[in-house]
Amino acid sequence: MINHLPILQVVIPLLVAPLCVLFRSPRLVWSIAALTCWIILVIAGVLLHEVLSNGVISYEIGGWAAPWGIEYRLDEANTLVLLIVSGIAAVVTSYARLSVEHEIAEDTIPLFYSAWMLCITGLLGITATGDAFNVFVFLEISSLSTYAMIAMGKDRRALTASFQYLVMGTIGATFILIGIGLMYMMTGTLNMADLAQRLPAVSDTRTIRAAAAFLTVGLSLKIALLPLHLWLPNAYAYAPSAATALLAATATKVALYVALRFMFTVQGVDFTFGQMRLDLILLPLSVVALLAMSMVAIFQTNVKRLLAYSSVAQIGYMTLGISMASATGLTGSILHIFNHALMKGGLFLALGAIMYRVGSVELDKLAGIAKRMPWTMAAFVAGGLSLIGVPTSVGFISKWYLILAALEKGWWPVVMLIVFTSLLAVIYIWRVIEVAYFHAATDENSGIKEAPLSLLLPTWLLIGASYYFGIDSSLSTSTAKLAVLRLWGGGL
Prior knowledge:
Layout: H1 5-22, H2 26-54, E1 57-60, E2 71-74, H3 76-103, H4 109-128, H5 132-151, H6 157-187, H7 192-202, H8 206-223, H9 232-238, H10 241-266, H11 269-275, H12 279-298, H13 303-323, H14 327-358, H15 369-372, H16 374-388, H17 394-409, H18 412-438, H19 453-471, H20 474-490
Antiparallel strand pairs: 1-2
Helix pairs in contact: 1-2, 1-4, 2-3, 2-4, 3-4, 3-10, 3-14, 3-19, 3-20, 4-5, 4-10, 5-6, 5-10, 6-7, 6-8, 6-9, 8-10, 9-10, 9-13, 10-13, 10-14, 10-20, 12-13, 12-18, 13-14, 13-18, 14-16, 14-17, 14-19, 14-20, 16-18, 16-19, 17-18, 17-19
């Protein structure tokens, strides 16, 4: 059985998706989905242990040997992302029962969980596959299910947000498909390991340069890199709370992993940063994203939108590390993929608990709720401090590696930028804390109670993890460094 874990990781949630539609009971459907997510988390943990102990795992689909057949190829880089996706999925699905029942009509809950499982299937498939065309297929599976989940939000603006994401997501997927198609035309292969060997012979052609450009634009849209981020704020703001937490913690991280895989391993560092000079594009875009989106977040009145713009800024940290084209910078980027998933997932779960009790996440509706919901707001404060990057939190670890990478290059303005944007995060997190802790409670909030334990426990599990891995970062940092070696020079 252990030999088939790479494919079971993807097949199990795929098979569960139609079962969610067949079993119409919301509680039964949730139980099946939650059990499935915990199973795939165990599988992801076993796979990571196997990779760290024994090296790369190659799984041939249908008995066809690579590169002729489709191959799942697992190494330190993508097993870490598999652990992130499955871990967040397990925690958020456990959280989802009450939140989904509160925000979604009862007759559509089975459909929601079906889309939920398809989204997780797509994200896991994107991460595990070693086939470039499979990346596109699973990308479409996750995207289409995401559009459906967002549209189920109880605010009518969720439909507009879903349609906007559909249009922009389709454009991004088309660019990715064109890029993959051009590479196939020049090399005759779709296997990523085979592509990495064949591309250097044709890397100086205009076709391969055009392919790299199409892939970069398409993946930047999926990552939500400024200025291709316009779909993200509304999608996060109006999606059901559980869906927001899942997407914020996983979707952009998986897209960024795909970008790293193509940039560093398939195309190679010399091509990406030597011929294409992608660093000259990523660096200014990252700087602008950090500054502009942090300042935009400060003026938001909806806390979900505030955290959504914060996410665009945090993506700027990840791409900033990539733009440095150094091992330390890439380590910081990979660490921030892991760390941001924990802290932003926890923050959105805390907001979901507030939505469950208050019915809104507008700032003016949250006056004085800290006295009524002390544990929920404490989780938000702790998550906010991690987002700022205080010592002992995972946010500090990521930013420390990015600062080290900037110092290696002598980029003192970048060091100052990281510190300054962290101070901007203090401002927008403080706006929520000020209203919740220091404003008098309104009459509407006088009867509010603390969130149920089934919402608090998953929230605190992610918040606690964001401090555990900040205090003892040995596992995350060592795995990230191994992932850098694999992406950079170790091949596939």
